[in-house]
């Protein structure tokens, strides 16, 4: 067997850097820390890793010089020179990371959707998505989420600040998703999945729409699920919730305990904007093991956070915890933002793994880019999670076997201590050094 080690460390210039091949372990006793990897038991199958195409990301992208745009796309989507993103998200109508509120049909009471048009998306959003598809050979899966129906479908008459879908608009709103999918197909972009509603319990100053669990269940059961099937789109992966881990079990229960609603739903999507609640991810799997789990959004709020190492650690900690609880895919928020952490039409500025300085034409790669890459670059679609058991709390770890048989183990060390440990697989073991504030990926082939 050959062991390859790649490391990113705060105190060194290493960024997913290949290290020298490790030496065979001579001391495999219980006196030193260890991680035992065992591929006899297999868990969930990986669907992919990625980020979100937003109007903000796309508008920033096209403010950069062509050579820098190519660097961005390669950094994310090239599986050899980049970090191999292959499952991404985008928005239906506007979101907070759009330049303003917009919908594809803003003509009041257009129940036949005669004025439906995705023309706005053709300016920047669709071209950026096509750049990623070009580089991946069409191997990138894309799912879409609405932040709000058009204003005329809302009880409040506005896209921002919550409100609800009017009962009389449920059918046309369901048909709206189908029309969106078909229009994107005409652009050569296949929509792999949908979430019903982004953050359905949050009344935001930006685009938002409120659903109770019962309202989401009924909309899926009586309108959206049927509309997708009637349109021949039954293979599109439909996901509920798309909000934080804290309430994900009770919201999943409302839908999945109704067989007629549950039959339309592929799984539960969720975010991280609350306490950890990692065990709720496990609980949803345990209660409905036939349904899938997908982390659909997470980012660091409050501006761009240049150079903060904790960003990467926040991502890796969450990714390990979620993957170890049956999550099939993990998707970051904006792929790209500008030097302010925007643009955002309500000033909700955030960070992204790559910050593009549109004034000076410089790309700033954040720690989160490299930490995500320790998973997305090495764990392939179709990989299956296997056992990785550590003997030290500071060594947070997960492991997978790829379709080609390679074993991938990721080890996070958020402590200020250097930890030497023994990595054991089958009848072999090697010595590995985990530096303070570092992450390691070990490939075994």
Can you characterise this structure?
This protein is an alpha/beta fold and 445 residues long. It has two domains: 3-42 and 386-444, Immunoglobulin-like; 48-378, Glycosidases (TIM Barrel). Helix content is 26%, strand content 25%. It has ten helices and 20 strands. A nine-stranded mixed β-sheet has the order 2-1-20-17-16-15-3-18-19, with helices on one face. Strands 4-5-6-7-8-9-10-11 form an eight-stranded parallel beta barrel, surrounded by six helices. The chain has a three-stranded mixed β-sheet with strand order 12-13-14. A hairpin with a 5-residue loop joins strand 15 and strand 16 (396-401).
Keywords:
445 residues; Immunoglobulin-like; 2 domains; 9-stranded mixed β-sheet; 8-stranded parallel beta barrel; 26% helix; 25% strand
Short description:
This protein has 445 residues and is α/β, with parallel strands linked by helices.
Would you spell out the secondary-structure blueprint of this structure?
Blueprint: E1 3-9, E2 17-18, E3 34-38, E4 48-53, H1 55-61, H2 66-77, E5 87-92, H3 125-136, E6 141-146, H4 170-186, E7 193-195, H5 213-230, E8 237-244, H6 248-256, H7 259-262, E9 267-271, H8 278-287, E10 292-297, H9 309-323, E11 329-334, E12 336-338, E13 354-357, E14 362-365, H10 367-376, E15 384-390, E16 396-401, E17 407-413, E18 419-425, E19 428-434, E20 438-444
Parallel strand pairs: 3-18, 4-5, 4-11, 5-6, 6-7, 7-8, 8-9, 9-10, 10-11, 12-13
Antiparallel strand pairs: 1-2, 1-20, 3-15, 13-14, 15-16, 16-17, 17-20, 18-19
Helix pairs in contact: 1-3, 2-3, 4-5, 5-6, 6-8, 9-10
